[in-house]
Specification:
The structure holds 2 protein chains of 2 kinds. Chain A is mainly α. Chain A contains 6 helices and no strands. Chain B has helices at residues 3-21, 23-44, 50-78, 82-88, 93-123, 130-154, 160-187, 196-220. In chain B, helix 7 runs antiparallel to helix 8. Classes of the chains: A mainly alpha, B mainly alpha.
Chain lengths: 232, 221
Amino acid sequence: MSRRFRLHDFVNWLSGLAMIGALYLVFLYAPTEATMGNVQRIFYFHVSSAWVGFFAFFVTLVAGIAYLRAGKRHWDIVALSSVEIGMTFTAMAVITGSIWAKSTWNAWWPWQQEPRLIMVTILLLLYLAYLMLRAFLEEEERKARLAAVYGIVAFASVPFTFMSIRWWQRLHPVVFEREGIHLAPAMLVTFLFCLATFTIFYFTLLLHRTRLGTLADEAEGLKQKLRSQEGG
Amino acid sequence: MNFLAKVLTIVWKDVLAELRTREMFSSMFVFSLLLIVIFNFSFELRVDNMAKVAPGVLWVTFAFASTLELNRSLSLEMENDCLEGLFLAPMDRSVIYFGKMLGNLIFISIIEALMLPIFSVLFELNLIQPSLLLTIFLGTAGIAAVGTLLSAIAVNTRAREVMLPVLLFPIILPVVISAVRVTGGILDGLPLADLAHWLRFLIAFDIIFLVVSYMTFDYVV
């Protein structure tokens, strides 16, 4: 038990320090972008959150497959934790993206111009459905099994949705093109550091959330044990 | 009995049950008819060119009618524990998946076939074209492939009728987008070669989701 606690402490400190470093790089080290100004600094956290969101859903897919293969309850907790974290980060990516869009394109929600916006909305809806499915199921084992299947199917649909939106947009006039972001070396360093920081942060949260899930499970087991003893 | 014969037995069972009750057909038919009429009226007042909204209306109608059918197909098996009976039959579970999927595909296709002439009249379009029929078949196959799996998930939940659309719609969105695109293209008179990438996309979706559903169906029921 004590070794696991040290691991938690270690990742806590690591992500805390990395986050401070990221904040320093984003606000003080990285140069101000010439045309967009300071708003461009959102980019570092925006892309990092989007990456973590996507990665988290991928982890759910992997955990779902692992659950179906091994049937270990632990994998289901990982899958659920990852969806919750993924939803949070995807929502953060949407919010930061909206702020950026407002200042550069003067629109909070440029549906027509930005295929990624539609994509991210669909992604949120998909995993909202995942959470709803869990909420509408009673039995723990069945909940884990069906959620794992839905996690797999949902992730399998993501590339299709992405492609169809891409192609759909191609028939429309492209108003805003954002091809090949040419980053200055200092910006690239900042960006990569933020990406790494957010990934570490993701694993920290996953570790804590999974542990919470396991503890809640244990507590539930103890409660049932007590109840049966009282009954007997 | 070989695999195909077993699958066809399940399909035949569903068809026979439907022929005797006619519940599904009548409810789906009236529901789709109502949808088309409602769409027709709600757009007529404002939209100058009905042909422009027709592909969207067509596919929304098909998607809604499909959920109705998919919901019914497995909740029927839940009544009187018919599903248990099916499992007791000496065959692989994937047979049940393919049987159910084929049954769903047939029922939805029949309703669509009945809807097309009515749709053509109300929207003053010629919808009965071979390329369009192919598109409708590919789109419907995609919906049926993933829908059969998801309806098997949804019957386990509370509020199962609500759960299926919530699970299904975000996943079949690529099908709807591409099918609407192709339908629109055909109605605009574009050559089929210009739409080939969309058709290939639909075929890819059908195959991938048929395989994914087949592989995961065992864990659902």
